[in-house]
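Re: [help] complex structure
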Amino acid sequence: MDAFGSLLLGFGVAADPMNILYMFVGITLGVLIGVLPGLGGANGVAILLPLTFGMSPTSAIIMLSCIYWGALFGGAITSILFNIPGEPWSVATTFDGYPMAQKGRAGAALTAAFTSSFVGAFFAIIVVTFLAPLIAAFALNFGPPEFFAVQLLTFCSFVGMGRETPTKTLAAMMLGFALAAVGLDTVTGQLRMTFGTTELLRGFDFLIAVIGLFGIGEILLTMEEGLAFKGSTARIDLKVVLRTWAELPRYWMTSLRGAVVGCWMGITPGGATPASFMSYGLAKRFSPRGAKFGTGELEGVVAPETAAHAAGTSALLPMLTLGIPGSPTAAVLLGGLLIWGLQPGPLLFVEQPDFVWGLIASMYLGNVAGLIVVLTTVPLFAAILRIPFSIIAPVIVVICAIGAYTVHNALLDISFMLVFGVVGYLFKKLGYPLAPLVLALVLGDMAESSFRQAMLLSQGSLSIFWSNWLVGSISGLALVMLFWPLIAKVRDSLRGRPNEPAVAAD
Amino acid sequence: MSDNSPAVSTRTVDAVVSALLISVGAVVVWDSHRIGASWASDGPEAGYFPFYIGLIIVLSSTVNLVLALLGKGPGGGFVERGQLVSVLKVLIPAAIFVAATGWIGIYVSAAIYIAIFMAWLGRFRPWLIAPVAIGVPLALFVLFEIWFLVPLPKGPLEAALGY
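Output below.
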């Protein structure tokens, strides 16, 4: 398929005036969500998802993905002005962004952050545009064993590449699968783990889990720190923007490195957060000014922002082509596709070209819109952060409760949301990763059905996952990923390096 | 709020959470076994997949429990007393708010919840509390009931007003 021709078709869809309007609404909401503590890309999209059921799927995904872009942009504002990362992936931005703001260079830091975000996203969108159709066409040959192997690879990558204790990653992930299995089994019609209650028939909706884990959990964590927002004021005028833009091309190597790292981490489910840290670390090591990092270097803002945005954007590539999201927010968008009756995966490119290419084109337009919106509205959002937490916190809890209720119009879901909030708080403090839990909850049914179909094909023999070179190499890679922590340990001891005790990052 | 002594050690919480996860895993294994976790004439039974999921939860959580008990997990204090109080100050009113939603509807309980939160934790004056506590639920009402036509839980007050 000709990517250029399809992209032009997509621009035709995305440039519809209503869709442009949704784009700006989405970006503005997204920046707001990214700025507010307790609301982030994943649960923000989850809360707003039920409101889009009445829209056409294309308009809905354009608005929701723009919320995602907005949230990615918004995280930088709080990091730089208040030293509070609004999103986990903007933690690395605080290292140099906040010192810059303290020196009175907040405008330059913000401009650099937004521009690098834009550059990172743009790089990733180009990758998506040209790689997605190829992967989708390739994946058309996939059968159930291949799909299960790819899903296995996704989940094993969390174990192999995560910074958390492998057994904790495994426990969190399997909890997600177990929760996904609750309710009516669609194949045999049997009830699983409902214990005679009718409320559990429906199972646990991942949207409820996302709102609780990321929303309520985050509020509890913020409350514990007893936050008082004290920040620098931000003024961005044209002069600062132009002067910063003139300075940015000097850091092209850092940008390029960040974008490549980001794309890689986004497509494999490493995610935006590790990508931003990795890019910051690489820039620190290779930059001639590396030693000054942490004291307010512009380059130290460029590196993590480029990578985070590239990762956040490229996370949509596996979601669209294989039906496997690369990040929790992409997982929520995938849930949206299923609710709108669209089956994500390679067939989507053949059956719904308007939708796919409309979305991809809207990614170009949405990021341009995002850059304009954030550059012009920073003072407004900075003012929102001056509202005391004791007003914001109850309002966010109420919004989360409404979001949880509207998913199924069930009161019990609000209680589940609170429970998930406590779980999120505990898990975060104990070093259990939340992303694999959410992804397992979303993909649980899909992974199970492809596993079952594969088992039916082979009459219960696991050898089907090694029956040809394609599925064999994916499964093999998955096992390498799964046992990577062990392999790394053995390698280190063979080299004679003393084993560092695994200290979990808090 | 100035109490900095740890209320409970991370090790204890880590061990308790691992133990809870083991029991969750055990329940999954048990229930999957109950509905059949083997191979039927027409393919895998309903409990086939969850059975192994539960088994992995039990195994990995056992490792986590042992690591926690041996002191190899995350250490230090889990939460300081003052922090725990702050967290409970959010959690308990939120739980009451959720419970009240079923009785008096989400809008009225939201108004009360926001008002109490602002007065208790923020020590705001009534003339600042009133506009926020009434304005936010009112805005949500317009947004959901009138604009998006998404009905939310309503109580006697809304019924009296004809909704």
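The radius of gyration of chain B is 24 Å.
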